[in-house]
Design a protein that fits this description.
Blueprint: H1 2-33, H2 42-53, H3 56-74, H4 80-96, H5 99-102, H6 105-131, H7 143-167
Helix pairs in contact: 1-2, 1-3, 2-3, 2-4, 2-7, 3-4, 4-6, 6-7
Length: about 180
Amino acid sequence: MLNLLTRKMGLQMIKHIYFFLLIVFINVFRLGLGLYLNIPEVALILIFIYASATNRVYGSIMGVTIGLIKDIMIGRAIGIYAITYLLPVYLVGYLMEHKFVSSNRLNMFLVFALGSGLFEMIFWLLNELTFMTEVSILSIFKWQQIINMIIQSVIGVLLYPRLRKIVKKGGYLFKY
């Protein structure tokens, strides 16, 4: 009985590690193409889904870890992306704990859009305080950023039911 329990816990841990590595790979891919294309922040949506499927604390830990890895990859200042991922992920995880949000796709879309907008605002604020960029806050909400927030929210709503099964206990992405 104990062997079966430890084996299930090991499989669950492997799923979390695979999900973590998927997010890291998406970040590396996005950073590689980020100079040439304006790609939505899909890793943020995956962390939102992780926080929604587990809870806000695990999602925040995942967000801080992914943020630190992204800070190390970019190399400007350590902690900018960690804090930028932490606050919106915690908020989305908190809001998704309520049944009325996670059961309705429109509410889920609005929560993901709120989280994406908060991500952009915190990123702007931290960059402004750290590097004195003198970029107006109105430049955050250009049409391009609003379209990215909508795309991110649509991606989140479409991927949530499928990826939630990976993170939840006993779920699989594909049936065998």
